[in-house]
Amino acid sequence: MATDPVRLALIVAGVLTILPTRPNAAQLLFLIGVALLLAISTPRDVRPQPILLLLVGAVVVRFVVFDRVGSDVLDVTSAAIERMLAGGNPYGAGYPESRPPGAPFPYGPVALLWYLPMRSAPEVIEFGASIAVAIVLALQGRVVGLAVYATAPVLVATAVDGSNDTSLGLMLLAAFMAAIRWPAIGAGVLAAAVAFKLSALAFVPAFLVWGGTRAAGAFVAVSLILWAPVVARWGPSSFLRSAQVANDFHATSVWSLGAIVRDFTGVKIEALDTLRFGLGGALAAATLAMRHSLDTLILAGSAVYVVTLHGGNWSTFAYFAGIAPLICWRLDGWLGIPPRPFVRWPVSPSEEPAPDPVAEPDPVAEPDPVA
Q1: Listed range (59-68, 121-130, 216-225, 319-328) with the worst mean pLDDT
Q2: Does a structural domain hold residue 362?
Q3: Structural domain includes residue 350
Q4: What is the DSSP string of 28-90?
Q5: Which residues 6+ apart lie within 8 Å of 85 measured at CB?
Q6: For position 366, what pLDDT does the model report?
């Protein structure tokens, strides 16, 4: 029996919304809406209502917790922007705005430009980035992926808690979506993502091998432009110093390989904070052969991303928001659910996969161009 994507998505969204905490009115209303649509839906009844409910739910469940704060990343970013505007160097110094005080600004120059328009309230940009991802998933007809992105507690929290990984996820999604048709443009967007946050480097090696010479050239050219202020004005040494201090700043082992080691042995292995980069680099080299499609690039890059960021002594759940848009974008295809987009992304005929002989014909569905 074929899987009904709408019912599956509604069930996933409903389950993820039920938390062992006191629910707010928005969560209860969303659950009621999910229950009603499940009750009245019929198999293969693919209509805008479920996607609209999930999209509205994505906005509402984030909006009602908008005042929650957990990370100091955006506070430090705002302070770095103010220092830049005053003519100073945003790198190489600790900021009293961090918790605890003294953390540096270790992000690329694109982060300074990204939050500049809303530097007094950068959390609005993160909230907007999460909604932009949800809208893209909705327009692409990724109904199960949208259900996960709209309601997963870790993604709801990260969109409003003061971290910057939701914006990184939007940039990575834009890079891979552009690469379907224009690999060089995708490489340029990926370069911007790296200049926003260095963790995007996890996706670069396999992507450039897959994209070829033009993609590599675009990546290098855009990188030279975006990193020019660091090289010519503020100095690479100040940026590297900020990156090094940020790597050493957190003393508690959490969300990491180091936390597992500590819990089993009672010992904190400091070397893990350095070894994780070597392990991530080795994994990146090993996955260079996984370049047959954007799907394999996403899986390979995500593996390098997780190993590098979570292989030390400190990490955070917010990092999952960086790869969540890519995973949710591809989730329907991995489950064998053909996309039913409202907006059809341009694809060249050579990129269209062969039709699935087992799947039932659907005049609305189209082949998934990424697999």
Answers
A1: 59-68
A2: no
A3: no
A4: HHHHHHHHHHHHH--TT---HHHHHHHHHHHHHHHHTTTT-----HHHHHHHHHHHHHTT--S
A5: none
A6: 53
Instruction: Enumerate helices (H) and strands (E) in the chain, giving the number of each.
Output: 17, 0
**Percent of the chain residues past pLDDT 90, beyond the cut:** 75
How far is residue 34's CA from residue 278's CA, in Å, rounded to a whole number?
46
Beta bridge partners of 95: 103
Which of 62, 47, 59 minimizes the C-alpha distance to 135? 59
Domain housing 321: 5-344
How many Å apart are CA 311 and CA 113, to the nearest integer? 30
Structure tokens at 334: 């991995």
Dist CA 360 CA 371 (whole Å): 19
Q: What is the number of domains present in the chain?
A: 1
Q: How many CB atoms lie within 10 A of CB 257?
A: 19
Q: Contact at 8 Å (CB) between 94 and 238?
A: no
Q: Is residue 359 part of a domain?
A: no
Residue 284 lies in a domain: yes
pLDDT for 339 = 76
Give the distance, in angstroms, between the CA of residue 285 and the centroid of all CA atoms in the same chain. Answer: 22
- Calpha distance 294→296 (Å, rounded): 5
Q: Which amino acid is at 88?
A: G
Where is pLDDT greater, at 138 or 361? Answer: 138
Return d(Cα 79, Cα 192) in angstroms, integer. 22
Which three-class secondary structure state does DSSP give residue 293?
coil
Q: Cα torsion for 149, 152, 157, 159, to the nearest 10°?
A: 0
**Residue 320 · residue 161 · CB < 8 Å:** no
